[in-house]
Amino acid sequence: MKHVFVAVFGLVIAPLALSAAAKTIQLPQDNAMAKLKPGSGLSVVETNCSLCHSTDYIVRQAGGDAKHWEPEVKKMVTVYGAIVSDDDVKTIVNYLATEYGEAPAQEQAAKGKR
User: Fold this and answer.
1) So what's the pLDDT on residue 6?
2) Which of 10, 66, 79, 99 matches a 20 to 30 Å C-alpha distance to 40?
């Protein structure tokens, strides 16, 4: 009986495992509107944040200063388990506060008129 099981395993399961190993997955590109702004710390943001989520989660946020962004970044570490060093957390917060800070009053007013 043991030999029959080994034979069935070799004839059925092994080819399936080989065909599964040969396949690859091509992920779609991020939405062009979600392209991160150039700035100091961009590579740290791309390296750390893009491992877990699309850049859409960054650019679609309301924006704000470091007091807004720091709890968001720390939540990714403490709640969702992102492995980000303390130095990288500071760099990410600084990048987000600088590049995705609160919009000037003129921009907010223009958005309200649409």
Assistant:
1) 60
2) 79
